[in-house]
Amino acid sequence: MTHSALTPTTAEEMRDVLAYAAAEELPVEILGQGSKRALGRPVQAAHVLDLSRLSGVEVYEPAELVLTAKAGTPMAEIEALVAGAGQELSFEPMDFGPLLGEAAGKGTLGGLIGANLAGPRRIKAGAARDHILGLDAVSGRGEIFRSGGRVVKNVTGYDLPRALTGAYGTLAVSTLITLKVNPRAETSASLALNGLSDAAAVAAMCAAMGSSAEVSAAAHLPEGICQRLGVAGEDRPGPVTLLRLEGFGPSVEYRFANLARRLAEFGPAERIGDAASKALWQAVRDVIPFAGSRNPVWRVSVPPASGAELMQRLRSMMPVEGFYDWSGGLLWLQMLDGEVHDVPLRAAIADHGGGHATLIRASAATRAAVPVFQPQPAPLAALSRRLKAQFDPKGILNPGRMVADA
Amino acid sequence: MVGIAMPAPDRGVLARRDEIVAALKAIVPGEGVIDALTEMRPYETDALTAYRQMPLVVVLPETVDQVSRILRYCYENEVKVVPRGAGTSLSGGALPLADGVLMSMMKFNRILDIDFPNRAVIAQPGVTNLGITRAVEHEGFYYAPDPSSQIACSIGGNIAENSGGVHCLKYGLTTNNVLGLEMVLITGEVIRLGGKHMEAEGYDLLALMTGSEGLLGVVTEVTVRILQKPETARAALVGFPTSEDGGRCVADIIAAGIIPGGMEMMDGPAIQAAEDYVNAGYPRDAEALLIVELDGPEAEVDFLLARVEEIARANRAGYLRVSTSEEERLVFWAGRKSAFPAVGRISPDYLCMDGTIPRRELPRVLAGMRELSVKHGLRCANVFHAGDGNLHPLILYDANKPGELEAAEAFGADILRLCVAVGGVLTGEHGVGIEKRDLMPEMFSEDDLKQQQRVKCAFDDKHLLNPGKVFPVLHRCADLGMMHVHKGQLAFPDIPRF
């Protein structure tokens, strides 16, 4: 469907492009490096708005904990830059590449904001929405607007930067984004408990997250899945329950000892050191156990404590395997028969404390036919449509990416 | 009222007062409708007491259904509504309108669910901020955002203002700690956003509602995340010969990868006032006093305090004390926490401003404030959240002296302009309200403000919720909806500017 690519180099060029597209009612697909192009519903658009030439870090001030960069800046560039100053994006954004059949390490700042990326540190550090401070953007009206600021504390006006985070480019196209950065933990370690049932694992994770050990991630990997991640050994056939501790060296040691004592009833604690722990959590973050297949993958967000019950119910209903990124309240599911099972899945979630399911991986035809994002009650859907109309009255920005009619 | 004008009351609505009161009484029976002048008096202002206005009528609903019916009635009859929590807003966010219904949410005062396994609490909006912590502290939990008014302010008001406090640097503002809410639109429709799960689905309306100052909807239920209380907290009290030294110390602490639980600074006049008031043992000869609190596991706190001491010494700290007991830690804070009443003792009145700046600009802004103090002929004391650059200059004046309130407001406006000029913002935590409304163009262009008001139109197309707050110009939604505006021309010169 794509006819041509438009590659603005400045916010003003972007404004002109979108003003023209609005006047002519020509839909555009917004694209960075395309690493998440297969996420969401397929976009039908005459033109591609390519942000690759809108790239570069404008300001990085480690002592202020802020970074401002153009939307098309590769995340790899940003991550290397902040790592050089001992800092990181503390919400550890996931890399969708491997799961969606793309290379790892791609993606841009604009894509990070559009998809509201997060990682296993979700409960403690939040998601991209919790770290965006300000942005410049162009609306579907072809108007440049600025919102937020470059300081970490700001309540001036509506929080448009957060509202645009996770909007998949359907409200406005960012040109310049300011993010909060944080010091990177000096070291980390993971506490592993072996052989727990799902229910026991949830009890252990509840106890750990409710303790003062400042656990920064919790996951439970059933048997087959931890084997694929290489965490299962001969002495440890799986499943494995993992709890991550991060911080200054003496603090991690002290908290590890405390946590091991607190969880003694769940069995002996094994210690996974800094390097192995990092690799493991990156694999959990990027859903590596489900990479390399074409089976449908769902991300299910639920109140954490209801995860095990829901998983058990789903196993009785459909051929499914899954693991818990528990601290983020996420169940990652892979449908083993190639079917999406959206209706029974969403019904089961509604029965188990509520939450929502997002279809992350499926063929374009499936993603066009099945609601990718959780369907909303009518008044909420109507409000969302009114909001879209205020930003993009002609419906030119990524039409259909989130819902079929907008 | 001085300085800031409000939209002219609608005479037609004023004339229909009896009819409106009767309609509200049909929805909320008994004492839930207050229409006698003397009984409405407590509602005529919030904590920005320089501004007062009697509302048309006060209504105190008790159920979501009543809120819904009140709003639907107001929508159908084009009556304005000002939602109000505990009335502790410092920016005039809950200032009533002469032709508007004041809707107090303080009868929504119950905690509905405490869920320790999911670390979440569901509360009605009239529950106080501290009330949430009180309900969960027996299990070692607390609710992190801690505005100074936390004993009185309501969680619903915290949502409206996106409130913060001393702990924000490490634990985030309200927006980072709210998981979900139930709200009623001006049309009476009830909507739920988020919940006990982490990710909100669809557009992040929860983010828009948080900090929207009562302009988008009325919150009827809130789900917040609670955290395990840190094992321990200890504070260091550090005095510096200049504010530059103090500012550099703050930057160096953060550059060392340390994010304190709280990091607060006071300038010379604030130190003197606080010391006179509580005798906390503050060094009177210091030009800047820093309180650095580290919280977390004991081993970590001890380890980091040693690092903070090293950094402070390297930045010419002339005074340094580390708390050795919980009592001593609280004494350190006593002066800072009572800085406002302490300043109230040395001046009949004061105006508390609220701007945020990039931390590195601190010396420049403090010097600028000294110059402005001379220009406006008023004294100024400074207490601020040093960790996140959120300033609270206290401008001292005497309301009984003609012209001093106006001078204080002009001084305050100049300070906020300076904050914006150095790359900061107009408000860090108190909100825009009416106080900073007319300064919005200092920070935002006409297009920026129009796009924000278009958001308002999606929620409230008749501009009935809390109009006159936040935005200096009231556009009609129909005008905002038009496209192809000519560049450089004011599109609608006939629109009323207050």
From TrEMBL, chain A:
InterPro entries the UniProt entry points to: FAD-bd_oxidored_4_C, FAD-bd_PCMH, FAD-bd_PCMH-like_sf, FAD-bd_PCMH_sub2, FAD-linked_Oxase-like_C, Oxid_FAD_bind_N, Vanillyl_alc_oxidase_C-sub2
Cofactors that this protein relies on: FAD
Pfam families: FAD-oxidase_C (PF02913), FAD_binding_4 (PF01565)
Record keywords, A-Z: FAD, Flavoprotein, Oxidoreductase
Protein name: FAD-binding protein
Residues of the signal peptide: none
GO molecular function term, any single one: oxidoreductase activity
Source domain of life: Bacteria
Stored PROSITE patterns: FAD_PCMH
UniProtKB/TrEMBL annotation, chain B:
Domain (FAD-binding PCMH-type) ranges: 51-229
Pfam family for this entry, one: FAD-oxidase_C
Cofactor(s) required, per the database record: FAD
Tagged with keyword Oxidoreductase: yes
The protein's name: FAD-binding protein
Classification via InterPro entries: FAD-bd_oxidored_4_C, FAD-bd_PCMH, FAD-bd_PCMH-like_sf, FAD-bd_PCMH_sub2, FAD-linked_Oxase-like_C, FAD-linked_OxidoTrans_Type4, Oxid_FAD_bind_N, Vanillyl_alc_oxidase_C-sub2
Keywords linked to the UniProt accession: FAD, Flavoprotein, Oxidoreductase
GO molecular function, one term: FAD binding
